[in-house]
Amino acid sequence: MASVPATRLFRSLVVPVTLLLCWEGISRAGWVTPLILPSPTAVAIRWVAYLTPLEPFDAAAGPWWRWALSGELPHDVFTSLLRIVVGFVIGAGLALPLGLVMGARPLVYELFNPVLQVLRPIPPIAYIPLAILWFGLGNPPAFFLISLGAFFPVLMNTIAGVRAVDSIYLRAARNLGAREGTLFWRVMIPAAMPYILTGVRVGIGVAFIVVIVAEMIAVNTGLGYRILEAREYFWSDKVIAGMFTIGLCGLGIDLGMSRLNNRLLRWHRGVEG
Fold this sequence. Notes:
By secondary structure, this protein is mostly helical. It has 11 helices and no strands.
């Protein structure tokens, strides 16, 4: 049994390592110019330089974590994640109560659904000109776009979850004397929680996509801005280093959400152990 995790790790690394070796071989063979596709070694060197703090550590200058964030990469990652968190909290904070009410009250659903169905297909990127006109440059338009990206996945999954609650649960609770408030908080919301958490997971993924686009246009910090800056100077290795950083951050967020889902939904028959 002890070898099972090692076997899984080996299987998960076979394809990435093979692709990296092929990429390195193609680059070293000179089949592609480094300006177009730098080797993984060059990308790794650039990534380390991108990660390294700009100034040597000085204990008198402040705590160590400020020094650690003084490098371009840690600062950009921190800035992008902060925007994601703020924008997602705004979007999900609006979507969750609205979705619960729309799912539980048919009248509210009929009132709001037509407008939401018109707005839902519009991608957040299409709001960029309006966001800049309304909020100017900086963090406010980024927060607006990210909240839009997170709003609809959380909203639609919450509505679907509440409307999909088995009527047997509701009848059983009513037969046991549950009032409407108790029925809502103790039956409907827990039963809809798998849908809600799925919407949260999708919403965070969309927010991560939107923040990169927003940083390429409306702000002058963050991973998206740094990739756009590297493109202007033809620093392909820095572009790819930034892309890999985005992928690693996205992987970390998704793993965290997966663990949270498994912990909160241990009671659910679809989640084991």
